[in-house]
Specification:
Blueprint lengths: L3 H12 L4 E2 L3 H9 L3 E7 L3 H13 L9 E6 L4 H10 L9 E6 L2 E6 L1 H4 L4 H15 L1
Parallel strand pairs: 1-3, 2-3
Antiparallel strand pairs: 2-4, 4-5
C-alpha cells in the first residue's frame, strides 16, 4: 500500500475534476448500481496513469455528451474498493490504470492498461468520447 501523502496529489487530479473518490466495496456497488452512466477510473501511481489515463479521462469530459456519474478508486491504496470495482469489470483481468463505463449497472466499455500505456491522453479521451456518444 502506498502512503496517503504520496497519492494525495494523484487523487486530487481526478477529484478536482469532479470524480467522487470511493473507498469501500459498498460505495462502489452503490455507484455502479445508479441509473444512467457511470465512469469508473482505477487510478494508479504509475507513469501511464499520470501521462495518459488521468489527463485522458479529464479531457474526455470536455465534449457534449458525458457520463452521469464520475467515480474513482485507487489501486495499491483502496484495496476493498478496487477489488469491488474489478469484480464488476469481469471478464477483463485486473489492470491499473483502467477506465470502465457502465450503463444502468452493466459494463459497456473498457479500457485496460494495454489500451492506455503508450497512447497519448488525447487518443484516450477520443476513445471515451466515442463511448459516451454511443451510451450516454
Amino acid at each position: 500500500m502506498y502512503p496517503e501523502e504520496m497519492v494525495k496529489p494523484m487523487r486530487a487530479e481526478l477529484s478536482d475534476a469532479g470524480f467522487e473518490e470511493l473507498y469501500s466495496a459498498g460505495a462502489v456497488e452503490n455507484a455502479i448500481a445508479k441509473s444512467g452512466t457511470t465512469l469508473v477510473v482505477v487510478n494508479s501511481v504509475c507513469g501511464c496513469a499520470a501521462r495518459n489515463a488521468r489527463p485522458g479521462a479529464k479531457t474526455s469530459l470536455d465534449g457534449e455528451k458525458k457520463p452521469d456519474h464520475l467515480v474513482t478508486v485507487f489501486a495499491g491504496v483502496d484495496k476493498e474498493a478496487v477489488d469491488a470495482a474489478r469484480g464488476f469489470m469481469f471478464p477483463f483481468p485486473p489492470s491499473s490504470p483502467s477506465i470502465a463505463l457502465f450503463k444502468d449497472g452493466e459494463l459497456v466499455h473498457m479500457l485496460e492498461r494495454h489500451h492506455i500505456e503508450g497512447r497519448p491522453a488525447e487518443l484516450i479521451a477520443e476513445n471515451l468520447k466515442d463511448a459516451y456518444a454511443e451510451f450516454c
